[in-house]
Amino acid sequence: MLAGKKVLVIITGGIAAYKSLELVRKLKEKGAKVIPVMTKAAENFVTPMSVSALSQEKVYNELFDLTDEAEMGHIELSRSSDLIVVVPASADFIAKTATGQANDLASTLILATDTKVLMAPAMNVRMWENPLTQKNIKILYKNGIKFVGPNEGEMACGEFGFGRLAEADEILKEIEGNFRDKKLKGRHFLVTSGPTIEPIDPVRFIGNRSSGLQGGAIASELVESGAEVTFITGPVHLDPPHGSNIIRVETADEMYDAVHSSLPADAAVFTAAVADWKIKKTAQQKLKKQTGNLPAFDLTKNKDILASVSKLKKNRPKIVMGFAAETENILENAKSKLMKKGCDFIVANDVSLGSKTMGGNENIAIIVSENHVETLPKMSKRALAKILVEKISQSFEEVDV
Ligand code: CTP
């Protein structure tokens, strides 16, 4: 997959810079051509000589090197590769690129490029968590820059937390993912995500713990595979997946309308934790405490969005995948939901208290279809997203014939 690909590797200054050597070695083993670029600060941690020896290429580090400009100008250098990888991406480099600075070769390349950029941040946990760094990450993300890591763990400075550079194999996987076949090109997907909230009065609502992480991960994975994605999300704190068409909703009714007006679609994935009930008549004014009187809420059922789409006679997506949030009898309930709702897959999760699935980073899932049950081990929601997208891609092959 990487054979013959040209990967421009930018090494910035940080104690994790030495780990970039391992990545360069692995890229070479896979047959990629590595063009190394180092910042001045990086040279305090690794020598250009070792980078050059491993990559078997000249190391670029000066913005105004006349020989380089004669051979290959910095604009051409920024655009002639298939991918740019920044490893490690220091807090300083992230800040610099987020503010559009171009005062050395590495930052100029990022500003000038039209090639995809992948950054692997590494820094002290406080620096990573600092709102300024987080703001910079958001800016870069919104501009289409992808990130891998940082991971949680012990750091060179002795502190513990998020800030460790992702492992070389993880970065390599992300790089390979970038060159993957766009096998879902030309397919339109609907993804529902996050919670819905049902108003009680102007200040209160019925809600749930869904973070939208699993839906976002699936949508990102679909975009990566070339699909056109309509992402319909309830209120969440996460940034929506880059490259998707985003529709923000609050209530189940709004989600229902958004889903139906976004059809037709080739496939639909319903990860949203839709409220089952809503208040029959939302109070127009804030409910006041009245001594001795507890408010009585008159509830009514919300429409089942997943079932309504699965049972469509016209415009039914070829593949419909639902989720099942369960706290007991997981498999049994998942099988009965598959039947009742009429979808092709149900991905069942244990969301009992203590499972940390809702709102957490990991998931334990069972994929249930008409003739098959597959129990998966505990994994990140991102890893599960990859498996589910693969499953849907395979199903297209079966239904398309
Ligand atoms: N779902 C939906 N519309 C609803 C309720 C649920 O589209 N009004 C979808 C969810 O997005 C999910 C699946 O149905 O894909 C199952 O949701 P879940 O909350 O697990 O089940 P419910 O149908 O609500 O049933 P129960 O509350 O009895 O578990």
Report on this structure.
The protein is α/β, with parallel strands linked by helices and 401 residues long. It has 2 domains: 6-178, 3-Layer(aba) Sandwich (Rossmann fold), CATH 3.40.50; 188-400, 3-Layer(aba) Sandwich (Rossmann fold). 34% of the residues lie in helices and 23% in strands. It is built from 14 helices and 21 strands. Helix 1 (19-29) packs across helix 9 (168-178) and helix 10 (213-224) crosses helix 14. The two termini are 27 Å apart. The mean pLDDT is 92. The protein binds cytidine-5'-triphosphate (CTP). The site of cytidine-5'-triphosphate has 15 residues, from helix 12 and strand 16.
Could you give the topology of this structure?
Blueprint: E1 6-11, H1 19-29, E2 33-38, H2 48-55, H3 66-71, H4 74-79, E3 83-89, H5 91-98, H6 105-112, E4 117-121, H7 125-129, H8 131-142, E5 146-147, E6 151-154, E7 160-164, H9 168-178, E8 188-193, E9 198-199, E10 205-206, H10 213-224, E11 228-233, E12 245-248, H11 252-262, E13 267-270, E14 277-279, E15 299-301, H12 305-310, E16 319-326, H13 330-341, E17 345-350, E18 362-363, E19 365-369, E20 372-375, E21 379-380, H14 381-400
Parallel strand pairs: 1-2, 1-3, 3-4, 4-5, 8-11, 8-13, 11-12, 13-16, 16-17
Antiparallel strand pairs: 6-7, 9-10, 14-15, 17-19, 18-21, 19-20
This protein binds cytidine-5'-triphosphate.
Cytidine-5'-triphosphate binds at residues 192, 252, 270, 272, 274, 276, 302, 304-306, 322-325, 337.
